[in-house]
Amino acid sequence: MSEQAVELKDDGTGLKRVLTLRDLSIYGIAFMTPIAPAYIYGAAQEITGGTLAMSYAVAMVAMLFTAASYGKMAGAFPVAGSTYSYTQRGLNTKLGFFAGWGIYLDYVLVPLIVFITGALYANAAVPEIPYFIWVLIIGVTVTVINCLGVQIASRANLILVAVMAAIVVMFVVFCLKYVLTGGAGSEPVSIKPFYNPADSNFSVIISGAALACFSFLGFDSITTMSEEAIKPKKDIGRAAIIACLAGGIIFIIQAYVAQLAWPDVTGFETQDTALFEIAQRVGGTWLSNFYTFAVVLSTLTAGIAGQSSAARLMYGMGRDEVLPKKFFTYLHPRFKTPIWNILIMAAVGIIGSILLDLTLVCELMNFGGLLGFMFVNLSVISHFFVRRNGRNPWKYLIMPALGFLICGYLWINLSSIAYIVGFSWLVIGFVYLAISTKGFRLEPKIYEG
């Protein structure tokens, strides 16, 4: 298949090409959210013995290799479907299905995580409103924005990310001020957030990096917008790397200054709200309230991006007739959005947020996300280096191989519960694929554009 065969035209019948490099980069950062450390800080610091900054650095390097692979595949195949489409075309159709099925678990769980966290923080701030009502408020808001179209979602993300970034900067400044004035015996400068001789070892840092990958899951969502990007071949890869690098730097800085301000990583009242407690220590009630507000905003940005990405992954799989085509490829006649897919994701996100546990959802996200990343790295090697005799081994063999190996090493360090539920999910996908291909006698279709 030629690469031109999948370069879709904006003829008014499909998704609308309206997104610039800035829009795509903001979209990826919005999915990850600048305040992502708030979700895992307490648990991650306990696992790493206070060296979360180093674990974030390791995770960022791993994600940068993989972001480069996503960019290469997006340049070759600028279509909706992301991990699913790239593996389908780079390796084979059946593996493409499993890659999409695995990463779909990731995309499905993002709204659950952000709805749960946002509702918990909002309920803590305004306990008069029950938790499930907050879930409904956040879920409905995200769904309406996505149904109105990608341009509306992009503008909303730009505003929300800017507000969050401002609050993160305030948090960093107050932590530094607290440290520089000798608060709680903290050290103005220390290497302990990166290396603590008493607690650090390779295994601990890698375990922390496996958890820290949660904060990066989202830069790949940029590739699901390939058919809505104005210059997909040029901008998708660049945006993925920009989002991954910018997010990593933001996460490392927050982990570093927070560790300096609160050296005792076991002294939090509640692990789930560790950074809230640090904000209260360094800036008082008003800063902790602002930080809570930022966490709630993050549920909107990540929820918008996560729900949108899952809907477009379903759109790509429906167009290939892996899922029922008529239903999953339906676009709203005015807004040109896959509205039924968005509504399915809204229902899953709201119901799951009410029924499931936050820690379990975080573990499961990493299973699907890292599995999908490994498939995409292999797809680059297969498509560019093997099939097309790529003459640049560093670009088409070594870099994606490093991305595969690092993600694979992080993947095998996940918890047992992640494997139990994750492989159960893959078995369900195997059964569905066997039925839909009549015992694997038929090949899943590939959209030709």
Average predicted confidence as pLDDT: 81
First-residue to last-residue Cα separation: 11 Å
What pattern of helices and strands is seen along the backbone? HHHHHHHHHHHHHHH
**Poorly predicted ranges (pLDDT <50, ≥5 residues)?**
1-11
Q: The CATH topology, please?
A: Amino acid/polyamine transporter I
What is the CATH level 1 assignment? Mainly Alpha
Coarse morphology? globular
Question: What is the percentage of strand-forming residues?
Answer: under 5%
Query: In the CATH hierarchy, what is the architecture at level 2?
Result: Up-down Bundle
Rg, alpha carbons: 21 Å
Major sheet size, sense and barrel closure: none
How many domains make up the coordinates?
1
* Number of alpha- plus pi-helical segments: 15
Give helix % range: over 70%
Give a quick summary of the entry.
This protein has 449 residues and is an all-alpha fold.
Descriptive report:
The protein is mainly alpha-helical. The chain has one domain: Amino acid/polyamine transporter I, CATH 1.20.1740.10. Helix content is 71%, strand content 0%. The chain has 15 helices and no strands. It has helices at 21-32, 37-48, 52-76, 83-90, 93-125, 131-147, 150-180, 202-216, 232-261, 274-319, 325-328, 339-355, 358-387, 393-411, 416-436. Helix 8 crosses helix 13. It is globular and about 65 Å long.
